[in-house]
User: Fold this.
Amino acid sequence: MLVLAIVLGVAWALRGHNAPNSDYKTVGVEEFNDLISNSDSVVLLDVRTASEYKEAYLKGALLIDFKADTFMTAALNQLPKDKTIAIFCRSGIRSASAAELLAKEGYKVVNLEGGTDAWIEAGKPILSLK
Assistant:
């Protein structure tokens, strides 16, 4: 039972549900959708790989691969600090890590809980290059 509690606690933290003093916010699909639909002051950031992006992507998303060695350099060069960064990946784990890094650089960041998996499951619009 203790092992299960530890595993769940680690998984919870990795999904961006860290301590209340977290420098970014993680929200569900509906709140994320409202954020990106109703604001000109939001940049939609996809931190998945190019191959994941080709399979399914959100309209208007900027792609900067979190796994790339150049992630932070690209992010700092391309993302405006005067806009909210609405960030996502496939499951929400990479984007939570990226959100933490960006928040430490002074960005206001909102992470999509569950990533594109949750987005698709909720029936939200997705595009494909295939």
